[in-house]
Specification:
Layout: E1 2-5, E2 8-10, H1 25-38, H2 43-62, H3 74-85, H4 87-97, H5 116-126, H6 133-137
Antiparallel strand pairs: 1-2
Helix pairs in contact: 1-2, 2-3
Length: 153
């Protein structure tokens, strides 16, 4: 068993990390309600997106400083942005999982068409999370707007 984050382990047998375990049920439910309120998503799609957003953010935090240039595509980024805008909960999340620091969002104006979204999905999978491939594949050709060379999220 390898420890991957506080209270998180990945079994060698292939057990995946659960994005829900990184936020309280109240925060999870709030984010789903906000996504349904503000976007044309039903509850199922909102849960899929927020789960991938959490898997992405935890991976970005855990891989910070490695200059992997991870970044999500527009679809998953919708849930990332919704969480960032819920500043109190996002700040508490960062504080808890990023050693008291704040994981900043540093977007580039133009999108990079360099395969970064696909690479990011593989980094997340290698970090022990289940990847919802259709959500990531939707943006493989668009790619991430993260600033080149940054540890953007």
């Amino acid at each position: 068993m390898a420890t991957t984050a506080p209270n998180q382990t990945v079994e060698k047998s292939g057990t995946k990390r659960d994005p829900r375990s990184f936020v309280t049920s109240e925060v999870w439910d709030r984010q789903i309600a906000l996504l349904v309120r503000d976007h044309p998503f039903d509850k199922i799609m909102a849960e899929r997106l927020f789960g991938q957003a959490i898997a992405y953010l935890i991976t970005a935090i855990e891989k910070f400083g490695q200059h992997l240039e991870v970044g999500c595509g527009e679809l998953v980024d919708t849930a990332v942005h919704a969480f960032i805008l819920d500043t109190v909960n996002y700040r508490q999340f960062c504080h808890k999982y990023f050693d008291g620091k704040f994981l900043e969002h540093v977007p580039e104006i133009n999108r990079k068409y360099d395969g970064s979204v696909e690479r990011t999905a593989h980094v997340i999978a290698n970090n022990g999370f289940e990847v919802d491939w259709p959500l990531w594949e939707a943006d493989f050709s668009k790619c991430t707007p993260c600033y080149p060379g940054s540890d953007c999220h």
